[in-house]
Amino acid sequence: MTTYRNHPEAIQALVQDDRVHRDLYLSEELFALEQERFFANTWLYVGHASQVPAAGDYWSLELAGRPVMMVRQADGSVGVFYNRCAHKGSRLVSDESGNTGKFFRCPYHAWAYKLDGSPLAIPLKSGYEGTRLKECESGRGLVPLAGMRVYRDFVFARIATQGVDFDGYFGEVLKAIDNMVDRSPEGRLTVAGGVLRNVIQCNWKMYLENINDTVHPMSTHESATQAAGALWKDKPADAPKPMAMEQILPFGAGYDFFDKMGGRVFANGHSLLGVNFSIHSGYAQLPEYEAALRKAHGEARADEILQRSPQNSVLFPSLAVKGSPQVIRVMRPLSADRTLIEAWSFRAEGAPDLLLERSMGYNRLVFSPMSVVAHDDVHLFESMQLGLRGEGNDWVSLHRDFDPAELGQETVTTNGTNELLMRNQFRAWARYMQDSPSGAAA
Length: 442
Ligand code: FES
Ligand SMILES: [Fe+2]
Prior knowledge:
Number of strands: 20
CATH superfamily of the largest domain: Naphthalene 1,2-dioxygenase Alpha Subunit, Chain A, domain 1
Strand content: 15-25%
Bound molecules: FE2/S2 (inorganic) cluster, fe (ii) ion
Shape: globular
């Protein structure tokens, strides 16, 4: 029995103006439909071009259940292909990353492909003469993802062959990437310091919501911030803080701080939290770095770059960006109740090493599952996943600051504790769960 597959109205009914149904988090049937529709229709983050610096370098991953690889091609550009041999379907590469040389050769029957995916060689070629191989998909080589775009070295793809174009999908939220990249005096980021991976036993939407949840730090992270506060309380106000202290103490700021930081929603589920300031605004200034930035961008632009310091920007549904410190989180849903979270750090080229230390320090202090912050969140995510199984209340509340006037508006700027930033994600979810999302034609 299927509840949702042939019942689009049942899917739409799960997202109401101010609350969402628990099946959004619990139903494996819905998760399968999400893989088929929602994650195919939206633009997903694949990886960063600096993960494949040299020709022949590849990075393989699963994107919404499909085997995918990002490849540095012979002409220096980045391609994104299905990691699937055109012959019988073996994956071309099974390591996560490596260098394939000048071509890919399938380990099964040695069909070979150039780095741009085109067919290069087939053993016993004469056996194919007079056959229909050339007219078949199998004769055409590797299949690129239908939509692909490299935006300032951030590589995105869309699985569906038709749909919203990249700029129309992301729009203004791309400024989050601009700001992070512009923090490099050379205008270039490279991944550094490895990746932190954490599989959480929860639905992916819980993680996405939490990125915009400004009301939980005071309770969820109370013990960590109180411990840090107790260590620091006797220090003079102007005492220079160790980096970890500088990063952890603002988590204890009150409801008022988080409310006043402000939030903004955009079409398609994207958001900007910390329109006015954020927990990152108080980081110590680095005169040598600022001088390099002024030299590269000019006074006014350098000020603009440094003053913009949002808490989080969500490029819905797979990427969350923190411009300062230069870190991203990548959401990789695995099943209805399992989600892989990756936290990556960047080196801002031309900036002092201290910036990379901040980036890596932040990821380890806040996003690592072993950190004093993330383990509190992970416990709550897994707890909600279990709690939602209870009967008698099928709904998850998103009522805070709901205003009927917000319906139908694309860009809204509001207070930082408004659950609009979460409601906006679910409205986009409902739209992209449709077979052909309304208004999403290329
Ligand atoms: S499956 Fe790849 S060559 Fe046969
Ligand atoms: Fe948290």
